[in-house]
Amino acid sequence: MFSVESQGAVDVVSAEGPLNQENAPKLIETIEQGLSSGQPMVVFNMQEVPLLDSAGLEALVETQQSAQLQGGCIKLAALTPLCQEILRITQVDEIVEAYPDVKSAVGSFVK
Amino acid sequence: MFRIRRKVGFPRKVVAYYLLFCLVVVCWLAAGVLVTSHTLLSSRTTSASLSRLGKTSAAIEIAYLRDGEQALEKVLQRTKAEAALAHASIISPEGRFLAHTNLALQGLPAVKPTGSLLKWGNVTGIRHVNEQGQILQEYQVPLVTNGKLLGSLNLAVVEPSLWGTFLETAHLAPLAVLVPLLLVAAGAVVLSRITTSVADANSQLEQVGMQAPGSEISLEPLAARDGSALGWNRVVDLIQRLQRDSGSEDLNSRLAEAIAARKQNEHEDILQNLTDGIAVTDMEGRITFANRAIASLLGTDLSVDGLAGNSLSDYLAGDQPRPEVTALFDPKSSHHPAITELQPPGEQSRRMLRIARQPLQGQRLKGQVWSLRDITQQKLAESMRDQFIDTATHELRTPLSNIKAYAETLATCDTIEIAQQKEFCNIINGEVTRLARFVDDLLSISSMEVGSLSAERQNMDTARMFEEIVAKVQPLMEQKDIQFEVRLPAKMQSLKLDKDKIVAVLVNLLGNAAKYTPAGGHVALKVTLDDRQLQIGVEDTGVGIAKEELPKVFDKFFRSSDPRVQEEAGTGLGLALAQEVVHLHGGELTVESVPDQGSTFLVTIPLE
Question: Does ipTM exceed 0.85?
């Protein structure tokens, strides 16, 4: 479900399938344990995530808070229109920054 | 009128004990008086009986001589009445009662009672208990008249009992007991009044004793009855003043402490939430403060508190001694700021940290303040920018040098043939075209950066587009004697694409394939088209791409470190632009490659 690749110090986590009750714990596990050490700089590529439910939103917020505690950050990339709308309605987009694609999300860590 | 004390204090106890002991004394004295009276009464009874015995004996002798035996009984009755005797009798030498106060016993043989024997000279006596339970003392003295033994005189008196003595002296009890008791009570009242101040002080001290330790002591001044009350009031006044002073001082200090703690908490929160790692070390380099970010920057699982006391240099140097870390912690240079960049040891070695050190010259703290920042991405960006500048310089200088050389030749040399002039002009034109293309790429990249790069999709003849592409790259293939295979669908409908940009992408991909494929190699353009998508594959048998470089090939300004690639001119912009254009069409550009065997770039564009 989740694959991780590194671009410099940034870990790009790509997912396939909906981010729901079933997959959300795996996302938290992947981000909190499966990433390289150091300050967490994570881009969550949601290009192949068609839908996310409350558990998925909670996982995003939780991992963001966890990363921020270590001085890091999680950013979203390539959101589908539906996911974008879900994030907007639930105001999670105010907590987790979203970028149109992985490249711009990774590049934002340079600034 | 009377003040009622709710609590029995120390003086009450004193009074109670005083009364108790006084009561005991009174009772003891009363008992003593009773016993003494009883003893005296007994003694007096004995003395009286003995003296009565002599007198009665003389009276009986006289009466016997004068009136004979008939007078004896009268004498005995009179003696009994005068001396309050139990009974009196005269016993003949034969052992019969000659006379007896109890007339019924006269003439009857006398029975000698059993008891303790008493003797005073020729007087004998027996102490015994009679039938009524009374203790009787019977005194006997021989009666001799004219040298003839008449018999013996027997007088019996009831010995006074203790109860009898008590009853006899009971009428004196009010005077003997109550008066002392009244005196004792009066003494208790006086004593209580004398100890009132001490009682009040004692009561307050007991209340203080019951308070929680450390709580404020509440004491009340007493009425100034005596010296102890005055002394107590002074002590209370002093304690109250001390508490007032310490209370105000305590309030001020607590207020100051609360403000300082609040500020401290605010500062702590600010420092803890910084994304830069902040640490403070003492003069020996041991961490005395660290924020949360620094723990992750140092790659340790330790908490902020767990870092305290550890040496910062150990985390930065790892197992091996590192000169740059040693220099950073050199005491000689600790008095001025220092900034360095280094890769942390262990798993984080691919990262780059910027470490700034500032001497801490506080009043309370001495040591160093450290600031750590992860600059890996910035270093990568810098590296790519430097690479681009190198490439761009090369790309700009080479055509410019050519243009300058040929233009100078044309300008200065008058004897150049027309054909040669044309050749030179063509070269200059070619270089200018190359320059223009490079500048176009730069402009496209710039547009890509600011987001203004867009695809203008229009219906176009797909077959003609591929013909155009093939025509453009065919010369390159022929130049290197590369076998160029083109596999197009038999029938292609018109598609809605940004023709110029797609052509540029495919020319770029095929140009790269031609550039990095050795002479005599093979390059293929394979196109498949269905209802859903257009797939264009560009395969070559070139130098290939190393596995670790595959993820970077679409990055701007990226150039492979392979020397065979470095030999060829290139800006590192083509693939980045190609991917961007494909993305603008909603498609994907992917690559698969095996070093030294070749690469396959696959463009997939969904159809609208």
Answer: no
What would the two tokens of residue B124 be?
């004998």
CA distance B91 to B192: 69
Which chain A residues have a beta carbon less than 8 Å from that of B449? Answer: none
pLDDT at position B270 over 70? yes
Instruction: Report residue B573 as tokens.
Output: 């912009």
Give the dihedral sign, CA B243/B244/B245/B249: positive
The DSSP code for B494 is -
Residues 6+ apart with CB under 8 A from B543: B516, B517, B518, B562, B564, B565, B595, B596
Provide the greatest CA pair distance for chain B. 219
Q: How many CB atoms lie within 10 A of CB B424?
A: 19
Distance between B281 CA and the closest CA of chain A, angstroms: 20
Stretch B186-211: mean pLDDT: 81
- Retrieve residue B65's tokens: 């001589």
φ/ψ of A4, rounded to 5, equals -120, 130
A37 with B296: Cβ contact below 8 A: yes
List the single range of B181-190, B585-594, B595-604 with lowest mean pLDDT: B181-190
Q: Cα separation of B274 and B295, whole Å?
A: 12
Round to the nearest angstrom and report the end-to-end CA distance of chain B. 111
Kind and range of the H or E run holding B402 = helix B376-412
Q: Shortest Cα distance from A70 to chain B (angstroms)?
A: 5
**Angle subtended by helix axes B196-210 and B179-194, to nearest 10:** 60
Q: A69 vs B378: CB contact, 8 Å cut-off?
A: no
Chain B partners within 8 Å of A71 (Cβ)? 274-277, 291-293, 296-297
Residue type at A67 in one-letter notation: A
Residue B330's SS3 state is coil
Q: Per the confidence metrics, is the pTM higher than 0.80? A: no
| pLDDT on residue A31 | 83
Residues A3-31 pLDDT 10s: 888 888 888 999 999 999 998 998 888 88
Chain A nearest-CA distance from B275, in A, is 4
User: Considering chain B, what percentage of its residues have pLDDT values greater than 70?
Assistant: 95
Give the DSSP letter of residue B110. Answer: P
B42: pLDDT confidence band, cut at 50, 70 and 90? Answer: confident
Residues of A in Cβ contact (< 8 Å) with B378:
110
Give φ, ψ of B118 to 5 degrees: -125, 150
B296–A109 CB contact, under 8 Å? no
DSSP letters for B333-368: GTTS-EEEEEPPSGGGGGS-EEEEEEEEE-SS-EEE
Record: contact B377-A72, CB cut-off 8 A: no
Annotate A69-110 with DSSP letters as a single string: HTT-EEEEES--HHHHHHHHHTTGGGTSEEESSHHHHHHTTT
Residues B501-516, buried b or exposed e (16+ Cβ, 10 A)? bbbbbbbbbbbbbbbb
Is B299's CB within 8 Å of A101's CB? no
Residue-wise pLDDT tens digits, B213-230: 777 778 888 887 778 888
**Strand A2-7 with A10-16, pairing:** antiparallel
CA distance B466 to B507: 10
pLDDT band at B1 (very low <50, low <70, confident <90, very high): very low
Tokens found for residue B292: 């949360």
Please state, in angstroms and rounded to a whole number, the distance separating the CA atoms of residues B545 and B553. 9
pLDDT confidence band for A35 (50 / 70 / 90): low
Helix (H) or strand (E) segment spanning residue B61: helix B10-67
- Any chain B CB within 8 A of the CB of A35? no
